[in-house]
Amino acid sequence: MFRQARQLSTTASLFKYPSSSPSSLRHYSFKVFRDVTPLRTLRRELLLSKRTIGLVPTMGALHEGHLSLIRQAASENTDVVVSIFVNPTQFGVNEDLSSYPRTWDADVAKLEDLNSELSDTNGSGRITAILAPTAQTMYPTLPPSSEVDGDGSFVTITPLAKKLEGASRPVFFRGVATVCMKLFNIVGADRVYFGQKDVQQTVVIKRMVKDFHIDTDVRIGPTTREDDGLAMSSRNVYLGGRRRAVGLALYKALKAAEGSYESGMLSRADILDAANGITRQVLSEQQSLSETERALFEVDYISLADPDTLDELDVVDPAKGAILSGALKMAPLEKTNSGEDCGLGDGKVPVRLIDNLILKPVN
Ligand code: PAF
């Protein structure tokens, strides 16, 4: 996947890599690491120079949400490490590992543009390194297993990992916690950055850092949204126009529930009825359309949960607030029209949309 990214010296300031077009060479303003040892050398150098490192873990397919996390990391650290690794162990055996978007050239171009922007920003740090390891580097002993009872060295954070997303994706948070533990150990960052969009992931990572006494500060950046409110996600490229418009129902449903909370309602029924009403209405409108017009979906869950334990709440304690979250499974399009924008994969790839809003504590 990242065949062109080979490790060079850690001391040079400009780095050349063969691009995916074999005839040209690329100059990067950051170092690209495939292996652990050279990155550790850099980390030691930075530590001795009293510099600070912010780590932004990603699986590539970078979008504005990632860039905004990197900007936050650059504003709080002298040096930013961005990891790009499509982590096999967080995909279930029947999930979309092979079709997950891999966009190395576009990702690197975005990071280069961002570094130019950061160089112009007073007092800001910048992207110093990309860690783009192979699966062999990240899983040096056994091939990474996605089986629920597969062997391997795994980090499990239960019961958090079994709730919400974990209920239908049983290995997901085991994979996330495991790869993040590895990345944290490799990079030794002062701060690690995650997006609010994946709220359960943020709760699992905070718990892991606390329970394993990991010496890093977990920082959460706000969800970056399109103008109409759709949460940015690497998976949105699969939606196409029709599914994108219908998938917005999730955000609208969460906003309606948030409105109920903000108007003073605290009971689960009152808050979630507002959200469920919206998804039911949108689904029934779609079901009444023809196969060439509609986009069907299933609501996996709409949850109202405690911010620390993710336990479902019957009543929100206004002093604590809550996490309102949901997941929709957008089905493949049944029939497409010629010339229609159906997204990457021609509308055939099922897309899981997740989103959340934090119901803030009220004093
Ligand atoms: O949020 C993601 O992109 C991934 O779950 C992460 C944190 C990079 C781990 O693979």
Largest beta-sheet details: 6 strands, parallel
Query: In CATH, what is the class of the largest domain?
Result: Alpha Beta
Q: Which parts are unreliable, with pLDDT below 50 for 5 consecutive residues or more?
A: 1-25
Gap from first CA to last CA: 50 Å
With strands numbered from the N-terminus, the spatial order across the biggest sheet is: 3-6-5-4-7-8
**Basic shape:** globular
How confident overall, as mean pLDDT?
Answer: 92
Q: What is the third-level CATH name, the topology of the largest domain?
A: Rossmann fold
SSE string, helices as H and strands as E = EEEHEHEHEHHHEHEHHHEEE
CATH architecture of the largest domain: 3-Layer(aba) Sandwich
- Overall radius of gyration: 21 Å
| Structural class designation | alpha/beta
CATH homology-level superfamily of the largest domain:
HUPs
SSE diagram, text form:
Blueprint lengths: L14 E4 L6 E4 L2 E3 L2 H13 L4 E6 L5 H13 L2 E6 L19 H16 L6 E6 L3 H4 L26 H4 L3 H16 L3 E5 L3 H13 L5 E5 L18 H8 L1 H14 L5 H20 L9 E9 L16 E9 L20 E9 L4
Helix pairs in contact: 6-7, 9-10
The structure holds pantoate (PAF).
The site of pantoate has 10 residues, from strand 4 and helix 6.
Pathway: Cofactor biosynthesis; (R)-pantothenate biosynthesis; (R)-pantothenate from (R)-pantoate and beta-alanine: step 1/1
Organism: Aspergillus mulundensis
Family: Belongs to the pantothenate synthetase family.
